[in-house]
Design a protein that fits this description.
About 40% of the residues lie in helices and about 5% in strands. By secondary structure, the protein is mainly α. The relative contact order is 0.12.
Length: about 240
C-alpha cells in the first residue's frame, strides 16, 4: 500500500485510515468498516487476535498468500514442526507457536480474499472503491495463460519447455514472470477448476523428477487445497 504513491493520497481522502502501524496510526481495537489483514495464523496469540479483528470489522479482507493460504510458513504443515524448532532453537520450549500455519478463513469469516505474493497494490484500491460504491468487489479467477494471451507473451511452457505453473494459476500479477521469459511459480494461487494432474504429466514429459514437481506445487501457496493435493500426489510418486 505504501508503494501506491499518489493513489494512496487519493485513497486517504476517501476513507479514514484508523490503524496502519507501518504508516503511523495505531489503534488495533478500533471499530472499522474495512479491515485488511495479512499474515497467517501461526501462534496462539494470533488465534485470539484475529477473533478481535473480526468482531471489530464490517468487512474483513485478507491480502497475500500467507493470509489466504498459509504462505511459506505452511510448509510446516507437511512436516514435524517440533523437529524443525529443535534443530534451530537452543531452547524450543520457549517458542510459542502452533504446529500449523493456516489461512485466516480457517478461523473466522472472510468477506473477500486478495491472493498474491505480493499482491498487486491496485487490487486494494479497486476493492475499496467497489465497497464505497456499495457493490461486491470483483475477483478474477482466470488462468495466467489468458493474461499471457492478452499481452501477446510467448508461452514459456510450450516454446521453452519450462515448468510454468500458469495453466493452474489465477491471474492478478499481470503475467510478470512470463513477460520476461521466466516460468510462473504460482504466487497468485490456484485458478478455478484447474487440472494439476494434466500439468504434472506435462512436467514429467520435460524430465522433471517427482521431487521437483512436488516443489512446484508445495511452494508459496502450498496449503491451498488444490496445490496441497497435487503436491501430496507427487510426493507419493516419489516414494513409489
Amino acid at each position: 500500500m505504501l508503494n501506491l504513491g499518489e493513489p494512496l493520497l487519493t485513497l486517504a481522502e476517501l476513507v479514514d485510515i484508523i490503524h496502519f502501524a507501518e504508516a503511523g496510526p495505531v489503534d488495533p481495537d478500533a471499530k472499522v468498516d474495512i479491515a485488511f489483514v495479512e499474515g497467517s495464523v501461526t501462534t496462539p496469540d494470533e488465534m485470539q487476535r484475529i477473533q478481535r479483528v473480526r468482531a471489530n470489522s464490517r468487512y474483513l479482507i485478507t491480502i497475500g498468500a500467507c493470509a489466504t493460504a498459509g504462505g511459506i510458513q505452511a510448509l510446516r504443515n507437511h512436516a514435524n514442526s517440533r523437529d524443525w524448532m529443535a534443530a534451530i532453537y537452543a531452547q524450543p520450549e520457549f517458542i510459542a507457536t502452533l504446529d500449523t500455519s493456516t489461512a485466516i478463513a480457517e478461523h473466522v469469516r472472510v468477506d473477500f480474499e486478495l491472493w498474491g505474493c505480493p499482491i498487486n497494490s491496485q487490487q486494494i484500491v479497486a476493492v475499496v472503491r467497489a465497497l464505497l460504491f456499495g457493490v461486491a468487489p470483483l475477483q478474477e479467477h482466470d488462468s495466467l495463460c489468458l493474461e499471457c494471451k492478452r499481452q501477446g507473451n510467448v508461452c514459456v511452457l510450450v516454446t521453452g519447455q519450462k515448468p510454468c505453473m500458469g495453466p493452474v494459476t489465477q491471474t492478478g500479477c499481470g503475467a510478470l514472470c512470463p513477460k520476461f521469459g521466466r516460468d510462473c511459480y504460482a504466487c497468485y494461487g490456484p485458478k478455478e477448476n484447474s487440472n494439476p494432474d494434466s500439468l504434472m504429466q506435462r512436467f514429467k514429459g520435460f524430465g522433471l523428477l517427482p521431487i521437483d514437481i512436488e516443489r512446484r506445487f508445495l511452494s508459496i501457496n502450498n496449503n491451498a487445497p488444490t496445490f496441497a493435493a497435487a503436491g501430496q500426489k507427487a510426493k507419493e510418486n516419489r516414494h513409489d
